[in-house]
Design a protein that fits this description.
This protein has 175 residues and is α/β, with parallel strands linked by helices. The protein has a domain at 1-39 and 75-84 and 110-168: HAD superfamily/HAD-like (Rossmann fold). It is 40% helix and 15% strand. It has eight helices and eight strands. It has helices at residues 3-7, 40-51, 65-73, 87-97, 114-119, 131-136, 149-160, 164-172; strands spanning 12-15, 27-28, 34-35, 55-59, 78-80, 104-108, 122-125, 139-140. The protein has a six-stranded parallel sheet, sandwiched between helices. A two-stranded antiparallel ribbon has the order 2-3. The longest helix has 12 residues, at 40-51.
């Protein structure tokens, strides 16, 4: 089955953080605190997905105050930091939301994402994903992680579900 066909049934998008929502860089200040860079267009994409009825969840291998702040700002309720073993958490989220793995997409970039990508209906990768992850993916962004890849993935799903025109009319001011 093609990625476009699979995208039509997606009800849940699960995102990794470092290398997907961020550029993967770890920026340390003089106190040793970590700052991360997020793309504002990814944020609006997440809001568009939520507005259109697609649930968004985040599973991260690391735990970061900066990430938690951004996730809460975006209204993502399913945020699960500090999980390198992602499949149990993924299955928990699906069970809680009553969404099957076949109706779930996962956007990843590195080896920690391989296992969940193998069990979801639509495995997706950022443009600068590790080669092994790109081979697992059925769809790949043209943009790198932290530089609009999440927005691109969301727009792909929304386009396949014919939800983009109504969203555009609403945002453009012509309901």
């Amino acid at each position: 089955m093609k990625a476009r066909d699979l995208a039509r049934g997606i009800k849940l998008l699960v995102l990794d953080v470092d290398g997907v929502l961020t550029d993967g860089g770890l920026y340390y200040d003089s106190r040793g605190d970590v700052a991360k860079r997020f793309d504002v267009q990814d944020g609006l994409g997440i809001k568009l997905a939520q507005e259109s009825g697609i649930h968004v969840a985040v599973i991260s291998g690391l735990d970061s105050v900066a990430v938690e702040s951004r996730i809460r700002e975006l209204g993502i309720e399913e945020y699960h930091p500090g999980h390198r073993e992602k499949i149990p958490v993924l299955k928990e989220i699906c069970a809680k939301l009553k969404i099957g793995l076949e109706n779930t997409a996962y956007l990843g970039d590195d080896w920690v994402d391989a296992s969940p990508m193998r069990v979801v209906g639509l495995p997706m990768a950022v443009a600068n994903a590790q080669p092994e992850i790109s081979r697992v993916a059925l769809w790949a962004a043209s943009r790198s992680g932290g530089h609009g890849a999440a927005r691109e993935a969301i727009m792909f799903i929304l386009d396949c579900q014919d939800k983009t025109p109504a969203l555009w009319r609403k945002w453009f001011g012509h309901d």
